[in-house]
Amino acid sequence: xxxxxxxxxxxxxxxxxxxxxxxxxxxxxxxxxxxxxxxxxxxxxxxxxxxxxxxxxxxxxxxxxxxxxxxxxxxxxxxxxxxxxxxxxxxxxxxxxxxxxxxxxxxxxxxxxxxxxxxxxxxxxxxxxxxxxxxxxxxxxxxxxxxxxxxxxxxxxxxxxxxxxxxxxxxxxxxxxx
Length: 178
Fold this sequence. Notes:
Layout lengths: L1 H10 L6 H8 L3 H7 L3 H18 L9 H17 L3 H13 L11 H15 L9 H21 L6 H16 L2
């Protein structure tokens, strides 16, 4: 994954070949195919690591305080993605948009499930207006974070990006809460 990340930044995903990745990682092509079916799967896996981190840190996202957990998971997702080189994130989003594989936007992902669980619990506890379904609220916040990350990709680097995202999440939570 590290070799692929470096090459994606250096060459772009379109120009990066599996052979390039194998040479940079000092592995055989057979070893590559033992772990991944395609270059696209490798790229998707490198960003899906966040879902594994969610499971490792699941106690951080407890449902005793669903709004704080919702905010934490959204900010952690943002911080995770922007911790990568911006050019790699651009290549990743470009790849997602061009591929038919929609794993990144699947409700089966741990990230999506945890956001949904937080919104469901917040509505049940009366913390979010029951005018909205948990699916709508979860989808809204996930799309907001994705849009913020895409905006980050399109603009000059902003040192306060995470802080601004936190303020904006707080503002959005005020719109949804009673």
